[in-house]
From TrEMBL:
Keyword match Protein transport: no
Pfam family, one: FAA_hydrolase
All residue ranges annotated as the Fumarylacetoacetase-like C-terminal domain in the record: 70-272
Family according to the record: Belongs to the FAH family.
Annotated organism of origin: Rhizomicrobium electricum
Keyword line: Metal-binding
Superkingdom classification of source: Bacteria
The name this protein goes by in its record: Fumarylacetoacetase-like C-terminal domain-containing protein
Cytoplasm as UniProt keyword: no
Length: 277
C-alpha cells in the first residue's frame, strides 16, 4: 500500500495511491501518524477504503509526515561515497540529526539559503518507524518498520564542514524532502535490493543499490535504539552513494534553477527545483 498526505481545500488529507489515482481516506482515520500508531486495524481500514478517486497529478503532495518526530541519519554508509570524500572506512556507525523543520514535500522547492554557497544533494532510502521501541535486536528490526520513502539529504557543506558536528549543515529549512508516499513494509520484503539514482538537470550523478550499504538497515535500527527510543513516525535516512557534488573535481554545488530528482526502484521518485532564499 502507498499512503500519501496531500492538500485539499487548505487541509491535510490522507490518501491511498492506486496507479495514477488517489483514493481519499476518511478523516476519521486521522493523520498519517495516527495510522502508523493505529497498527494493523487502521492499516486494514486504509486498504479497504473505496471512494471517488482523484488524479494524482491534480493534487499537491505534502511530506507524508508533515512534522516527523525525529529525523535521524547515518553518514558515510556507502563505500564509494566514503572513498570520494577521502575519509577512512568507518568501523562504527556515524549518526547525526536533521531537525523536523527541514521536512519538505516531495515536489516542493529546495531553498538555497542566503548563508550557504555549497548546497549539495544526497539520494537516500528513508525508513519510517512503525512500532519502534528501545533495544531492538537485529532480528526484531524488520518488525519495527512501517514503510519506506525516497529521500534527499540536502546538505549545506560549508556549514557541515565548519565543525565536527553536522547538525546545522544538515538542518536548513526544506533540506529533508521525502516521499512521494510511504510504501508500506509488506510491499518491500527486502529493502536491501533496491536500485537508487540521483539526477541534476537530467544528468545522472548517483547510481547504486541498497545492497551496498556498509551498515544495513537492521544494523542501523539495532544500533541507534541502544541509545534512544525509536517512536512511530520517526525517520531514518540510511546513507547516500558516491556521486555527490562534494566528491566531484572540481566540486559542483546546486544553483538557482537546478532540478534534482531522486529515484528508488519500487518506491517512486521525488523531484525539486532549487530556488534562492
Amino acid at each position: 500500500m502507498k499512503l500519501i498526505t496531500f492538500a485539499a481545500a487548505g487541509q491535510a488529507r490522507l490518501g491511498r495511491v492506486e496507479g495514477n489515482e488517489i483514493i481519499p481516506l476518511p478523516p476519521s482515520l486521522g493523520s498519517m501518524i495516527d495510522v502508523i500508531i493505529g497498527g494493523p486495524k487502521l492499516r486494514a481500514q486504509a486498504a479497504a477504503t473505496v471512494g471517488r478517486p482523484l488524479l494524482l497529478s491534480n493534487v499537491h503532495l505534502l511530506p507524508p509526515l508533515p512534522r516527523p518526530g525525529k529525523i535521524l541519519a547515518i553518514g558515510m554508509n556507502y563505500a564509494d561515497h566514503v572513498r570520494e570524500t577521502g575519509a577512512p572506512m568507518p568501523t562504527r556507525q556515524i549518526w547525526f540529526c536533521k531537525q523536523p523543520t527541514a521536512a519538505n514535500g516531495p515536489f516542493d522547492p529546495i531553498l538555497l539559503p542566503k548563508a550557504s554557497t555549497q548546497v549539495d544533494y544526497e539520494a537516500e532510502l528513508v525508513v519510517v518507524i512503525g512500532r519502534g521501541g528501545r533495544h531492538i535486536s537485529r532480528a526484531e528490526a524488520p518488525g519495527a518498520v512501517f514503510g519506506y520513502c525516497v529521500g534527499n539529504d540536502v546538505s549545506a557543506r560549508d556549514w557541515q564542514m565548519a565543525t565536527s558536528q553536522w547538525m546545522l549543515g544538515k538542518s536548513f529549512d526544506t533540506h529533508a524532502p521525502f516521499g512521494p508516499w510511504i510504501t508500506t513494509a509488506d510491499e518491500v520484503p527486502n529493502p536491501h535490493t533496491l536500485a537508487i539514482r540521483a539526477f541534476v538537470n537530467g544528468d545522472k550523478r548517483q547510481e547504486s543499490n541498497t545492497a551496498n550499504l556498509v551498515f544495513d538497515i537492521w544494523d542501523q535500527i539495532a544500533h541507534v535504539s541502544e541509545v534512544m527510543t525509536l517512536e512511530p513516525g520517526d525517520l531514518i535516512f540510511t546513507g547516500t552513494p558516491g556521486g555527490v557534488g562534494l566528491g566531484m573535481n572540481p566540486q559542483v554545488y546546486l544553483k538557482d534553477g537546478d532540478v534534482v530528482r531522486v529515484e528508488i526502484d519500487k518506491l517512486g521518485a521525488i523531484e525539486a527545483v532549487c530556488r534562492g532564499e
